[in-house]
Design brief:
By secondary structure, the chain is α/β, with parallel strands linked by helices. Helix content is 30%, strand content 25%. The chain contains eleven helices and 21 strands. The longest helix is centred in the N-terminal third of the chain and has 19 residues. It binds adenosine-5'-diphosphate (ADP) and zinc ion (ZN).
């Protein structure tokens, strides 16, 4: 562990620390244009008005729209001279949001990233190839500095250019990679095209994140490359990667509670939910100077795992993110998350590394088509064999998700690949 004392802190001590740090966040928030207005509206006049952690419920949520409204500096709590960097979200769901950082903010973020990497068993002897996009997107620089601080040899490869990635891996004997799971799957096909069997690359671990993925995607990656893959969760509003990370136990992601206060709410009624109840994750920064955020609605759906992890770290764990509340598709009145379909597809060894869910309107009904790449080698070549697998997938989707999907099989490499976060849904209804 990077810091045993803090990583194995007792719950009661942690809560004391969180209260002190939350008061600090409030004192910073009082310096921002946005929260000043908001606090005066609810009659909060000083951080001392908050006596205990549960008083946090007196403060309204902060939403992505609030952040957009506060663009560019409405959430800035320090003098501009203190700001050393800014980052922005990818803009998956609209205008990107901006977060400013002081030197100390960056140091704290780096510490969380180093801690996360150590939790997966990575050491300074590893060579770390970072295949995430560098720049405003936080995926690149966050783990980059975390890995450097750990003493790893860092290859700042950035995203894309798969041939070069493979070359770097071979020449410098990369042991740990950081990428989106969809990119790594795409890479597996490219490696095979070069005539190399993926395990020959000698990779040991992959840090995979930035987009929702199922347990079956993890298994597929682990199986193809013969590696251990660890789920990495974060978002630019909470620094970036290093918010929650899997440890070697691979049983949920430790959400670093000394740096973030977490709540799970029912996204409709907004009431707080207990452990093991699925809802929307709400986070409050506890250490950030430049951009304090209070009760930020992440829109990500998960639940808190009750009980302690076998690794000894006491920060509670969250389950794999099911998707964003706004990822939910409504197909002829039935609610569906793309992750449910993915979990079914990836169970089948015949299914390849990329898929796309397409929805369109046909005579006032929603029609859903699941297009998936396949490994032709695994089929006998008989049409009946293809049809059999299609039917199995169709029936499994029908029974688990209650929708009647048409299944289409495509050649490996024929569906569009994205350099950053994978685009898994093409909803043509919106364009009509
Ligand atoms: P944007 O919100 O514009 O995509 P970010 O780059 O900050 O911008 O992305 C953060 C979001 O990415 C998270 O809120 C979450 O929806 C998704 N995400 C990040 N890591 C994971 C992960 N390990 N599993 C599932 N979703 C993830
Ligand atoms: Zn653990």
């Amino acid at each position: 562990m990077l810091n045993r004392e803090i990583e194995t802190i007792e719950r009661s001590e942690l809560e004391k620390l969180q209260l002190t740090r939350f008061r600090f966040t409030l004192s910073q928030a009082f310096k921002t244009e946005f929260y000043k207005k908001r606090f005066s509206r609810i009659g909060l006049s000083s951080p001392e008005d908050i006596q205990q952690l549960s008083d946090i419920k007196k403060i309204p949520f902060t939403t992505k729209d609030d952040l957009r409204e506060g663009y560019p500096e409405g959430f800035l709590a320090v003098h501009k001279d203190e700001v050393v960097r800014l980052h922005a979200s990818s803009g998956t769901t609209g205008m990107p949001t901006v977060v400013h950082h002081t030197k100390r903010d960056l140091d704290n973020w780096t510490r969380l990233c180093t801690r996360s990497l150590i939790a997966t068993g990575a050491t300074k002897s590893d060579t770390f190839q970072n295949m995430m996009t560098y720049g405003l997107f936080t995926g690149g620089l966050g783990l980059h500095y975390g890995a450097e601080a750990l003493g790893m040899l860092v290859i700042p490869a950035g995203a894309g250019n798969t041939k070069r990635q493979i070359q770097l891996m071979r020449d410098f004997k990369t042991t740990v990679v950081h990428a989106t799971p969809s990119y790594l799957l795409h890479m597996a096909d490219e490696v095979a095209k070069e005539g190399i069997t993926p395990p020959k690359l000698g990779l040991k671990k992959a840090m995979i994140g930035a987009e929702p993925h199922s347990e079956n995607i993890r298994k597929k990656l682990e199986d193809i490359f013969k590696i251990d893959a660890y789920n990495s969760y974060g978002m630019s509003e909470m620094n970036g990667p290093g918010v929650a990370f899997e440890c070697i136990a691979k049983d949920g992601m430790h959400l670093w509670e000394d740096a973030y206060y977490m709540e799970i709410i029912n996204p409709e009624s907004c009431e707080n939910l207990g452990e093991d109840c699925e809802g929307e994750l709400v986070l409050t920064t506890l250490e950030r100077e430049a951009t304090p955020l209070i009760r930020y609605r992440t829109r990500d759906l998960t639940s808190v795992i009750a009980g302690l992890c076998s690794c000894g770290r006491t920060s509670r764990r969250i389950r794999r993110i099911k998707g964003r509340s706004d990822d939910m598709l409504i197909i002829n009145g039935v609610n569906l998350f793309p992750s449910q379909i993915e979990a079914i597809l990836m169970k089948h060894p015949e299914v390849g590394t990329n898929y796309l869910i397409q929805i369109e309107k046909k005579s006032s009904l929603d029609k859903i088509t699941v297009k998936t790449e396949i490994y032709p080698k695994l089929f006998s070549g008989e049409i009946t064999d293809l049809d059999r697998v299609k039917k199995v997938i169709h029936d499994e989707i029908k029974s688990a998700c209650l929708v009647n999907a048409s299944i289409e099989f495509h050649e490996p490499g024929s569906l569009p690949v994205s350099q950053g976060k994978a685009v898994r849904v093409s909803d043509l209804r919106k364009e009509e």
